[in-house]
Input
Amino acid sequence: VADQQIFMGDSGAAPLVYPVPPAVEFLLKAVNADFDGSAASGEWLPAVVISSDSGHVIARAVDPGAPVAAGGSAEASFFPGVKRTSAGATPTALNIPWAVIDSQDGEALAHSTAATLTFAGANFNTNDASVYTLRSGSPPFQGISIHEAGIYYVSWSVEAITNGAAAPVPSATELGIAPGVSFAGTDLIVLDLTDSDAYGIIQQGSSPNVNLWRLRYVALVAVESVTGERALTLGALNKSPTYSIPSTSGQGLFGRIFAMRLSDGLASYSTFF
Amino acid sequence: VAAPVVVSLPPGLVLGGAFTVAVTALDPATGDEIPDVIVSNVTLEVDQTAGSPDELTVGPFMLVPGPAG
Output
């Protein structure tokens, strides 16, 4: 048993054939060759074709998954045990339907008149109108209507800046999505990360007396059916949110509702936990 | 620089006299050989089990001597 290396430095049109001499036997361990395909008009595959003494092909060592382009060249190695790794599927952009609606007061958080949180259609946006639409009604009643079942990540927040007396802390019953109001039946809030007590005081008790109030809610909602209305609103349905700020210069009020559909069915919602 | 390509050979295949090893290029669609492709610098690494090393030389195929002792 001895390893030997056989080499041919000449070049020639494919195929170049090595005939095994009559008295010789060997185990073919590896083959390497240069391929010049500059004259090839189409794709081609480097190959080693092994034929028996009867002239029948025993094996064609070729990888259909690795063609060389027309006019291309390659150096090819052939040896046992090669496993081509999958190139993998071409990544595709996630197409997660989402919608957001902002209060008409915008993010400037500055006005000098009394304000009640409302939503305006001009601030509604979605990437999939088949899943979400602006909830109809005059601005105080607006929200996000949901038209497809599934698991939804929903969040909503209210922020307020007051200048002067401390603003009242909104309660969870004033701001929130109440099952049986916006959702119904067997819809389920499967994860409620309501943080109704969250607020921060930037500066209080000195001049200027500025307070920042922030309420944040996060939930996963399983919408089983869209028969009837399913909507995300702040406050009770068909009522404007009760949170308001007094008329004092330098105040502002801002609200936002956001929804993102994580799955198109309910069977897999347990995978989120 | 030529693109590197790696292809699997059948393992444990012992070739005897009058067998042939053809280094070639095939059409992906038909399997036909493509003579427009020029092959050069062919190297075969073998584990010889019968015959003498000198017999491996055939035509332009030469036995590569081992390292100088």
Chain B touches chain A through 58 residues (CB under 8 Å). Residues 6 and 26 of chain B are 15 Å apart (CA to CA). The mean pLDDT of chain B is 87.
